[in-house]
């Protein structure tokens, strides 16, 4: 029990309540001592006034008055004259004097502690103001044993009351904590354990129902997390199944494309000028398709392979991509292409992977323009600085929808057009990370969209990021 939260709450509550009672008990005992002494002064004053009213009081009556007052003698100062009104034998010397006319709380507490911890019956002098201004000052001598006994009795009573109060408060708080906090928490824990047994079962997702706002906030956060996790697990399972299917399709497609590549090689021997001009592009397209199938098969075992870096002419790669997209433009579409790449610009990259990146971006732009049914332009420009190469792919399309911007590089959720999978941007971003670079959305809106490719010139940085991309798990 003591290791549980409820047990510790019970213990701590009892400790804190007792501590609070102790802090209250000490001043209350000091106040009790002051009231006790004041009552003795008042009794002594009444006895002295009785004697002043009749000087012929017998000695035995005087002793009875002192005994009832609980003092040895009484000194009353009236009209600046100090007068011993009542007296009896004092059993010992006066060990201390206490002035009750204007004490501070710290003095009362200190004097109460001294009285409480003293041993034996000693004689003390107490000075105070007479009641109803029956003089200037009253002074008595009295024993400490009755005072200490009264203080002990009062403290015993207060401790008993404090203990009862502490236990009652702790039990009530314990019941309240169990009812309003621990039971809802145990229900949340039970839901978590049930969900952990089968996280793909949507029926096990918690339904927030707590009446305590803080616990309900926790339930709502847990509900959101479990919902997202269940969706992610389902998507992961679908992706695994899709990956297995794609691997099988890519295997068969690679065999088909290999045969097509052999047939395409013969096109170069044709006498038709158009065929001669287009045959190399067909051969290159088929070769890239074969390489893509092989890379897809490898993707089932690991992430994209590390890039094989070499110096290449960016203008040649961009021209090849643009030529391929011009052939893919629909007849009814009015789409133009522009290239602003210096012929002398050479950068360090993997030719096949860079071609895939540019092809994905330009294809996305072409499909977005075709979907609008309006005329538009796609432009590819490049520049370089001291530390990096910059490539921009811009279009005059309608811009990316908000959902696509929110999940821009997430597979199957960042599609920029209806029916799109979002794989193109995800693959492009992954390939560029392998180069040590990045893909950024520079601008999007009704006036068009611009994607920015940044490739570093530092060979060490490229190699480091390439190795990290090649070692990353699938």
UniProtKB/TrEMBL annotation:
Keywords: Coiled coil, Kinase, Membrane, Phosphoprotein, Transferase, Transmembrane, Transmembrane helix. GO terms for molecular function: phosphorelay sensor kinase activity. SUPFAM superfamilies: ATPase domain of HSP90 chaperone/DNA topoisomerase II/histidine kinase (SSF55874), Homodimeric domain of signal transducing histidine kinase (SSF47384). It is found in: Membrane. InterPro entries: HATPase_C_sf, HATPase_dom, His_kinase_dom, HisK_dim/P_dom, HisK_dim/P_sf, Sig_transdc_His_kin-like_C, TCS_sensor_his_kinase. Signal peptide: none annotated. Its main location: membrane. This is histidine kinase. It comes from Pseudooceanicola marinus.
